Amino acid sequence: MTVKELVNELVEKHGTTHNSLMPVLQGVVQQERYLSEEAMLTIAEALDISAAEVYGTASFYTFLDTVPRGKNVIRVCKTISCHMQGKDEIIQALEDALKIKVGETTDNKRFTLLTANCLGWCHKGPVMLVNDEVYPELTPQKAVEIIQEYERNTK
Amino acid sequence: MKDKKLKKVDLIFECDDCKPVEVLGKTLKRDQDEIILDIIDSGLKGRGGAGFPTGLKWKFTKNEDSAIKYVICNADEGEPGTFKDREILSRVPEKIFVGMTICGYAIGAKEGFLYLRGEYNFLLKDLNATLDKFNAQVKDLGLDFTISIKSGSGAYICGEESALFESMEGKRGEPRNKPPYPTVAGYNSKPTVINNVETLAYVTMICRLGAQQFKDMGTDDSRGSKVFSVSGDTPIAGIYELELGMTVQEFVDEFGDGDTKAVQVGGASGSCVPRKNFADTIIGFEGIPTGGSMMIFNSSRSMYNVLHDYLEFFAEESCGQCSPCRIGCQQLLKGIEAVKRKERNPQYLEDLKKLAATMKLASKCGLGQSVANPFTSIVDNFKEEIIY
Predict the structure, then answer these.
(1) What does the buried/exposed string (b/e) look like for B152-161 if buried means 16 or more CB atoms within 10 Å of the residue's CB?
(2) Cis bond before residue B93 (omega within 30° of 0)
(3) First to last CA, chain A
(4) What whole-number distance in Å separates Cα of residue A126 and Cα of residue A122?
(5) Can you say whether the dihedral through the CA atoms of B34, B17, B49, B28 is positive or negative?
(6) Per-residue pLDDT reduced to its tens digit, B63-87
(7) B150 and B114 in contact (C-beta within 8 Å)?
(8) CATH assignment of A72-153, among 1.10.1040.50, 3.90.470.10, 3.40.30.10, 3.40.640.10
(9) pLDDT value of residue B2
(10) Considering only alpha carbons, which residue of chain B is nearest residue A120?
C-alpha cells in the first residue's frame, strides 16, 4: 500500500475533522514507523489543514517520529526506578548486540534504539517497549534474546 | 486523634462478588442530583494527584446549560513512579467504565472517552473487547451513553487536563489558560468532567457500598483509601491500596528495606521527605498529597543522581510553551551540573532555588509550577550530596 492509500484509508475510518488528526498520524506511524514529508502533506490535504499544522502536532509527540525509523522501534525506560534497577546495562547490551548507539537505526533498517521516560513499570524494571509490546523485568541477556526473536521474525 | 496504623484495604481490585454492571443498573434508577450529592458527601477527591473534590466537578458540569457534554477518563498515567492506573485498567476495567457511565448519567453527557497513554497501547485489544460488550450492556439498560478510547503518543504533559483536550482535538499538547475550567469549556470547548482512572473506579465502589463506608476511612482532609505504587529500594515493590492518613514513618516501616534515607512522595513532581521528617509527615491532602507514586531511596543512593534524573525528565517533558518552565527546567539542570563540576560555588544553589520559586509563580501549568517541589526539597535536605 502506498502512503497515499494508507492515509486515505485512515481518513475514511476516522473522519476529516481536526479531531481525527491524532488517530490518522498514529495509524501512519503504526504502519510506516515514521511520518514522511509525503505522508504529512497528504494528511494536510485530506483534512484540509496546513502542512505546518500537521507537522506542528506530529513533532510535539515523542511517539510520532518525523525521521525514518527501523521496522522495530525499541524504547528502553530511563527514568529513576529503572535507572536504579540497571537500565544502563540493558542499553549497553542492546547497543552491543545491534552495533548501534541510542538514537540510531541499524543498517538493515530492522531496529531503532531509543530511550523513553517512565513507562509505568517501576516495580518490574528495567523495562522496554518494542513497538507496542512491553517487556518488563529485563536482564541484559533477556533483552538481547527478545531482540533476536524479533530479528528472526522480521522479513 | 486515635492511633492510626497502616491499614490495607481492598476496594479497587476486589472482585469476588463485584458485578460493576449491576451497580450501574441500580444507580441508574436513582435521581441524578442524589448521586452527585452522594459523591460529594463521600469526600472523594481526585486520585490523579491534584485532589479536586470529584462530586463538585460533576455538580458544576451538570449545572452548565449545554446540549453536549463529555466525560473523560484520564488514563495518561505518566508520573515517574506510578503504575497503578495500568494495573486498574488491566484488572478491573469495567469498574472504570461504570464510573464513567454513572458520571455521564449524572451530568447529562452522551459520550465518554478514555484517553490512554501511548505507552499502554498493548492494553488496547483487551480494553476494546471489554468496551464493546460494555457499550452494548449500557444500551440494554436504556441509557444513551457510549464510551470510546483515544490514544496518546508519548507526552507526559498530556496528563494535564487541558493539554489532554488539545491532544484529543489533534493539536500540540499545550495546556490552556484557566479559567475557563473544563467544567465550563473542556473537550471541543464543551462542559467536560475529566477524572482519573482510580477516581472513577472509586465512584463505582461508592455507589455500591454507600458514601458512608468510604467516608469512614481516612482523615477529615483525606477520605477513603488510595492505591499506591511502591518502587525503589523496597523488597516488596508493587501496588497497594491503603487507608489515607498514614505518616511516612508508618509507610517506611512497612515497605522500606531497613536503610531508607528518603521517600519521594508524589513522583518527580512531588516532594522528597528525608528520614528526619518521616515521623511527622502525613501522606495525604493535609501533608504531602500524592497521585500514588512512592519511591524509596536507601543510603546507597546519590540524591544528586535522583534530582538530576527528575530535572532531565522535566526538561524533556516541558511543552516549551511558556518561558519560565521551558528555560527554567534547562537552567536548573545545567545549574546543578555546574555546581557538581565546581564551576559554580555552592551558594549558586540559592539562586537556583529562587529560580524554582519563580517557576512556581510564573509557569502556566502544573508541570512548571511543581518543579520547585523536588528541587527545593532535595537541595535543602541533601545539599552536601549535590555539592560534593
Answers:
(1) bbbbbbbbbb
(2) no
(3) 17
(4) 8
(5) negative
(6) 999 999 999 999 999 999 999 999 9
(7) yes
(8) 3.40.30.10
(9) 41
(10) B83
**Mean model confidence pLDDT for chain B:** 95
Q: Of B86, B151, B238, which has the smallest distance from its Cβ to A120's Cβ? A: B86
**Residue B3 confidence (pLDDT):** 46
The C-alpha cell at A50 is: 496546513
Mean pLDDT calculated for residue range B343-362: 97
Q: Pick B78's closest partner by Cβ from A21, A83, A118.
A: A118
Q: Report pLDDT for B18.
A: 74
> Is the separation of the CB atoms in A82 and A139 below 8 Å?
no
Mean pLDDT throughout B189-213? Answer: 96
Output the pLDDT for position B109: 98
Amino acid at B81: G
DSSP-based three-state secondary structure for B70: strand
The stretch A87-113 carries a mean pLDDT of: 98
Asked if residues B199 and B49 have their Cβ atoms less than 8 Å apart, the reply is no
User: Could you give the CA distance from residue B54 to residue B213 in angstroms, rounded to a whole number?
Assistant: 17
Q: What is the pLDDT of residue A154?
A: 82
Question: A21-32 and A3-14 helices cross at what angle (nearest 10)?
Answer: 140
- Whether A46 contacts A6, CB under 8 Å: no
Contact B116, B75 (CB under 8 A): yes
Q: What pLDDT score does B6 carry?
A: 81
**B231 contact partners, CB below 8 Å, separation of at least 6:** A81, A122, A123, A125, B81, B83, B237, B293, B294, B295, B296
Looking at per-residue confidence, does B219 or B239 come out higher?
B239
Alpha-carbon distance of B328 to B12, in angstroms, equals 39
At B44 the three-state DSSP class reads coil
Residues of B (123-182) whose Cβ lies below 8 Å from A: 124, 150-156, 167-174
Q: What is the DSSP letter of B53?
A: B
The torsion angle over the Cα atoms of residues B285, B100, B39 and B36, rounded to 10 degrees, is 130
Q: What type of residue sits at position B271?
A: S
Mean pLDDT value of segment B355-359 = 98
What are residue A113's DSSP bridge partners? A74
- Residue A148 reports pLDDT greater than 70: yes
pTM, two decimals, is 0.96
In the numeric block, which cell numbers belong to residue B327?
Answer: 528555560
| Per-residue model confidence as pLDDT tens digits over B246-305 | 999 999 999 999 999 999 999 999 999 999 999 999 998 888 988 899 999 999 999 999
Which of A28, A30, A123 to substitute to test the interface with B, most B CBs within 10 Å? A123
Which domains, from first to last, does chain B contain? 20-215 (3.40.50.11540), 303-387 (1.20.1440.230)
B16 pLDDT more than 90 = no
Cis-peptide, bond into residue B179, ω within 30° of zero? yes
How far is it, in rounded angstroms, from Cα A125 to Cα A132?
A: 17
**Encoded amino acid at B143, one letter:** L
Overall size of chain A counted in residues: 155
Mutation target vs B (from A80, A127, A137; most B CBs, 10 A cutoff)? A80
What are the residue ranges spanned by the domains of chain A?
3-60, 72-153
